Amino acid sequence: MNPAYIIVIITMIASWLIQRRLQSKFERYSQVGLQSNLSGKQIAELMLADHGINDVRVISTPGRLTDHYNPADKTVNLSEAVYADRSAAAAAVAAHECGHAVQHATAYAALQFRSAMVPALSAVSKFMPILLFAGVFMLNSTPLPLTIGVGLFALTTLFSFVTLPVEFDASKRALAWIDRRGIVTTQEHAMAKDALKWAALTYVVAALGSLATLLYYASFLMGRRRD
């Protein structure tokens, strides 16, 4: 069996396990009320104000673990639970997403690079799977479709790895701020840090999975050259 294929299976299993662990951690830490009694919305607005960011809105978005920062319309989108919750988990998530807003405001290089890649990736994502699938079946007649597909998939893999420093830095900013501002106690800080650690691991596994998939498709091209 192709080693890259084995790695893909392993990363899929690891991703599932980490997602379950992440959900378990957030459910647990969502039960721990903050002594500061601040909601996710209030924490987000306070962090933005402390960094002099006045043009970013904090809004509620449907779903669970759907929290994100949108640089296009400058909104910190907090899932319904995080938006209203007053827990260690909500503090971690709200501050983390505001960490991205701070990155945006300070022109953090990795975030700028990742944002610049989004339009291109959005365009190619529609037909890249077709190129890869068709390229494998057409490989005996022509390697061109698969070569193009692998090249485009390499961009998505690069995007996954560029995302890592962006996420780690946002968490670092979040934890430093909630500690400095007195949003959390020592125990609550440990919980917030643990929650963000498991969230970060999902991005690590996703990047490794993307790399393994890239190597899997690239192996077809390498095998053809050896023939």
TrEMBL record:
Membrane-crossing residue ranges in chain numbering: 118-138, 144-164, 198-218
Cross-referenced Pfam families: Zn_peptidase_2 (PF04298)
InterPro entries per UniProt: Zn_peptidase_2
Keyword Hydrolase: no
Sorted UniProt keywords: Membrane, Transmembrane, Transmembrane helix
UniProt name for this protein: Zinc metallopeptidase
